[in-house]
Amino acid sequence: MALNGNELLASPDRPPEQRFDGSYPASLVTFHAPLVSHLHARSQLFSSYTEFHIGLRTRLMPTIARSGPSSYGALRVTGLHLRVPSGFSEYSSLRGRFIKLLERADLAKLPVLVSNADHAHDLHWMRMFPDLQFQGDVLSPPLGADSLRALLALSGDNWRNFRVGSRYPPRG
Fold first, then answer.
1. Which of 2, 89, 110, 162 has a CA positioned 20 to 30 A from the CA of residue 63?
2. 18 and 40, same structural domain?
3. Residue 120 and residue 107 share a domain
4. How many domains does the chain have?
5. Range of the domain at 148
6. Whole-model pTM?
């Protein structure tokens, strides 16, 4: 992977006949990295919260080297990602540590992504924190064939344009 301006190139070192021609805007790609001090000066604030498996969310940003733009770029920390223990909202000690963790993230101005919101009770409890982002099974349950067929039918012949939560038919 290499950086060309603000575009990530998938396989720049391969011969042209084996190269994947696609590129993707680097600003839309987030990497998860371990919690290390050389990526963020305040990472030590979070090292004692091992039960939450904290890591850094980073993006590859363009940089300038002596001879011009670097194809390697630099990692910029854009937030934290963490995994909450299953059922943690039922234990006051874990809830208290979670709140302290969020306070420290706010102090460091790092948005938080909870990447395993797998239980409805935990998700419901975490909803009181307005700036949290969530990923997990409880947010994306399996969709059966009948439900998928019904969703796609809502948009008629324009099923590729269907967007959940958008107005249909779109105002033109």
1. 110
2. yes
3. yes
4. 2
5. 142-172
6. 0.71
